[in-house]
Amino acid sequence: MRYFGALENVQELAIADLDFSQFPAGLEEYFGRFLHTLRSVALSSPRGTCRQLLDFLRLFPQLDDIKISHYRSRAETHEELDARSVLTRGGLRGRLTLVKFDEEGLLEDIAAAFGGMQFTSMDLLNVRWMEFLLEACADTLETLRIYLDDMSRDCKGVLGH
Questions:
Q1: For residues 136-150, average pLDDT
Q2: Are 106 and 73 in contact (CB under 8 A)?
């Protein structure tokens, strides 16, 4: 991570096994360098609370594409978002990819923090709470790929099954 200081124009960032508790000084100290350039983030098996993951995503106001795979939050009490911390950019655009994801409250917080969701493309594999995502992006969604299994049975009513 100490080499991040030399990077000037990173637009895509992919990290596996990121543990948010390993940044006691705060995520901004390490990732703040990408504040104005990062457009795409992919996290595989991130570890931490929903609030830590949300705070990480909120570091990047230019974010358009989000991929989160194999995330299970650590137990926490849900904290309401502070209205002053909501970005006013008018929603996330681009592509959303979720793999093995079961955090409805986090999806709602992400939408609130970024002023909504306006994704044009979604890939959802083993995801619960698809109804929220489909409703949030009903006007902007152009590409949708859904892979159902036991975890995502709750969306079958949404898809007409």
A1: 90
A2: yes
Both tokens of 141, joined, read 């969604």
Q: Which two tokens stand for residue 126?
A: 């083993």
pLDDT more than 70, % of the chain: 79
CA dist 2 and 25 (Å) reads: 13
Tell me the C-alpha to C-alpha distance, in Å, between residue 143 and each of 23, 44, 149: 36, 22, 20
Q: Which two tokens stand for residue 116?
A: 């909504």
pLDDT band at 76 (very low <50, low <70, confident <90, very high): low
| Contact assessment for residue 53 and residue 73, using Cβ atoms and an 8 Å cutoff | yes
For 6, the 3-state DSSP assignment is helix
The helix (run of H) or strand (run of E) holding residue 65 is strand 65-69
160's enclosing H/E stretch is none
Task: Name the residue type at position 114.
Answer: F
Map out the domains of the chain as residue ranges: 2-159
